[in-house]
Design a protein that fits this description.
Blueprint lengths: L13 H15 L15 H11 L11 E6 L2 H22 L2 H7 L10 H4 L2 E8 L1 E3 L5 E3 L3 H18 L3 E5 L5 H7 L5 E10 L15 H4 L4
Antiparallel strand pairs: 1-2, 2-6, 3-4, 5-6
Length: 219
């Protein structure tokens, strides 16, 4: 069929597949969200490779509706932090419900977002609601949120496997990110990902993940 190419990935024996995935789970299970970052630099090349991995994610109609803005510039990070803390202060003081506050209590979060300037990189992820063709007409995108969510998962795991830590951050509202990053109206901020090494004194909540029986059903 026109437009298709052969695809024959190496076939792995079932027992090897299971062993490989068991090993990968052991690595994945060590991932933790970090809020205290070291200011040690991370090479741009590392971020470039991580974003290329994110870009291999499947997407609706292969529209690849994502834009990753990787920010190293301290001045830009400071602008994002100031705007985010302003929104977060309002959230914690007047928008949050008692139930939500209780759910966040074990995580120790508040409106102070030092990670936004401490982490050597911020990756602001945008969802492209539609594309723009050369003639200025719109190119419809499909399943944008699902696609960008999958790509973000690819990115987080890639960073973890490379020995880096990250923190997802979703200030509400997030429209200020479009202005700071200079993105068009066709794109909506999806989340901010702080990326770097954990600080020497970093701590994480002592939390347990749900068991397989709690998250899965086999039929």
């Amino acid at each position: 069929m026109d437009g298709f190419i052969p695809y024959q990935p190496a076939r792995v024996a079932p027992e090897q597949v299971a062993a490989s995935l068991a090993e990968q789970y052991q690595v994945a299970d060590q991932r933790r969200t970090v809020r205290q970052f070291a200011t040690d630099p991370v090479p741009r090349e590392a971020i470039e490779h991580a974003l290329l991995i994110a870009g291999t994610a499947p997407s609706g109609a292969h529209k690849q509706p994502w834009t990753f803005v990787a920010i190293q510039d301290l001045e830009v990070k400071q602008r994002i932090r100031e705007a985010a803390e302003e929104e977060e202060r309002t959230f914690y003081e007047s928008r949050i419900t008692d139930e939500w506050r209780e759910a966040l209590r074990p995580l120790g979060t508040d409106f102070v977002k030092t990670h936004l300037t401490d982490a050597p990189w911020l990756i602001v992820i945008f969802r492209q609601d539609y594309g723009v063709r050369e003639d200025g007409t719109r190119d419809k995108h499909y399943y944008m949120t699902e696609s960008v969510g999958i790509a973000t998962g690819f990115l987080i795991q890639a960073l973890h496997r490379a020995g880096l830590c990250c923190l997802t951050h979703t200030p509400s509202p997030m429209t200020f990110l479009r202005e700071i990053c200079g993105r068009p109206l066709s794109e909506k901020p999806f989340l901010v990902l702080a990326v770097g090494y954990a600080s020497p004194d970093a701590t994480v909540p002592d939390l347990a993940r749900k068991s397989l029986e709690e998250i899965a059903q086999f039929m």
